[in-house]
């Protein structure tokens, strides 16, 4: 090799190594700060040793954080990927197999069993895939990266508290790239506030106990304001010449106003001219339209995406 080229390659290798070492030192300093905060919060040294020993940042987590499907897909792509016949059929089986538990959740929290099933289906394919990433590593990576450092640092501390309380071992605390856990894909802070012991065994187990997991989804929606006597929304058709600027989630008006404007069911049947508040959404270029009600916005408390809430609503209509 030409000596000049060898020098250039050596310099490049040294620069890469230097940057890697700096990043490693920066992450170690970050973890030292987390340990100090955790000890002040009462988390034991033993828990910190088990959860943080040998931890390194995960580049895959950062990559996934930058291309979330709610922001990179059209409505039609998002819908078709999540409302496959396979998912609908699996949802019908899950609904039937867990009907007694779902009815108990409805009795306790007054939340629709089919909506609970649909959220379960979208979050983890009815428990079929709950994520395989180390939650502590994911949260630490996102907190260290800095884009939403405060949020993810708080979630990391909440996750350490869950381990410290004995709800789950560090190696069992696996989930999504963003740190969402278990059947309902709760963030750690939501686990602290909203996970329930549905079967009364003294533990809140959203990883291996379906009753606790489904009950926790029901509690989440109930605490978010679910109205048991209302639908989430429905698919509709809008009249020719409908002004698309009126199709906004925040443009709530009495349902009778939309009926007067010519909004109809897909089969052309007129909707009831009620006083309940509704808005029109047209999420994609195909022109598919929806009337959404209060409960649509409750679903968005679970995931603040119109696409997500529409998919949950549509799946719920198909699984039951």
Structure in words:
By secondary structure, this protein is mainly alpha-helical. Helices cover 56% and strands 6% of the residues. It contains 15 helices and six strands. Strand 5 (277-281) and strand 6 (289-292) form a beta hairpin.
Compute the gyration radius: what is it?
Answer: 24 Å
Mean pLDDT: 91
Order of helices and strands: HHHHHHHHEHHEHHEEHEEHH
Distance between the termini: 70 Å
- Number of DSSP E strands: 6
Globally, the shape reads globular
The DSSP helix count reads 15
In the predicted model, the low-confidence regions spanning at least 5 consecutive residues are 8-22
Beta-strand percentage range: 5-15%
Helix percentage range: 55-70%
Largest sheet: 4 strands, antiparallel
Strands of the largest sheet, in order across it?
3-6-5-4
